[in-house]
Amino acid sequence: MSYRLAACAEMLYTDLPIAERVRRIHERGFLVEIWDWSTKDLAALAATGAEFSSMTGYLRGDLTTAEGRAALLATAGESLRAAEVIDAPRLNLHGTGLGEGGLPVVPGARVSGADWVHAADTLRRVADLGAAAGRTFVLENLNTAVDHPGTPFARAADTLALVRGVDHPNLRLNLDLYHAQIGEGNLVELVREALPWIGEIQIADVPGRCEPGTGEIRYEAVARVLREVGYDGVIGMEAWASGDADAALDAFAAAFPVALAP
After folding, report:
1. What region holds the Xylose isomerase-like TIM barrel domain (predicted)?
2. CB 60 within 8 A of CB 72
């Protein structure tokens, strides 16, 4: 069985209402990803007939502070209830809550040993919530050089260490290769090392965060490795279209050959 392709409705067809974006992506045969569910009419999105891949799994909070952990756990529970409406199987988390422009609400790129312990405990509790609801939380790596300065636990090495340490079937990685290329590089070996812990892969090219073929990453080589190792999960394009959105989806499908849904 091959991997499946998804596309982010937050970043494509941006001149259209969100429900129409979802419908367009679905009609092209891709799964659909969304971000903040609290700003959307989820019943209307479900009515499009689209199959959703993931959505944001919290509204507020962080992994380490007492107040932040309580907020993250509470809003993770709210997110699980929202996920039932669109049947989203995966709910996305970050090292801390992100605010305007992707900046961390509580910056803290340097973390202590106690922060690691608190983060692991928070993620374990979130994973238990996911298990009770039959859904999986995924922890996404970010980059601090361009998009998310000051975010703790941003590197793929950090998110992998947390997910591996918690070792819970309802907590996996959202391995974002765009962020990893900016922060760490060595994408093929990163994929190989992280493979047992990956719940989803996200992609965009560097620089610019647009579709494959617009930057420096040879995504055809990454796709070949994913086929070689038997990856059968989701690959989501979380990227802006450099021009026409349909052309961007064509480029994505060409870089990651797979039979799309009719």
Report:
1. 43-245
2. yes
pLDDT at 100: 64
Please state the pTM of the whole predicted model: 0.94
Distance CA 185, CA 179 (A): 9
Given this model, what pLDDT does residue 262 score? 52
Beta bridge partners of 98: 104
**How far apart are alpha carbons 172 and 194 in whole angstroms?**
10
Residues composing the chain: 262
* Sequence-ordered alpha helix ranges (H) in the chain: 18-27, 42-47, 66-86, 113-133, 156-166, 177-183, 187-194, 219-228, 245-255
Identify whether the C-beta of residue 144 lies closer than 8 Å to the C-beta of residue 109.
yes
Task: Measure the CA dihedral 72/155/148/124, to 10°.
Answer: 0
CA distances, 134 to each of 78, 84, 146 (Å):
14, 10, 35
Please identify every stretch of the chain with a pLDDT value under 70, giving residue numbers as ranges.
1, 97, 99-109, 259-262
Q: What gap in Å lies between CA 180 and CA 142, rounded to an integer?
A: 7
CB atoms within 10 A of CB 72: 28
Spatial CB neighbours of 81, under 8 Å, sequence gap ≥ 6: none
- Residue 144 and residue 154 in contact, taking contact as beta carbons nearer than 8 Å: yes
pLDDT (0 to 100) of residue 108: 60
Residue 138: burial class (beta carbons within 10 Å; 0-12, 13-18, 19+): buried
Do residues 13 and 24 make contact, with C-beta atoms less than 8 angstroms apart? yes
What three-state secondary structure class fits 58?
A: coil
Q: What pLDDT score was predicted for residue 203?
A: 98
pLDDT given at position 111: 81
Nearest to 80 by CA among 7, 129, 41, 22: 129
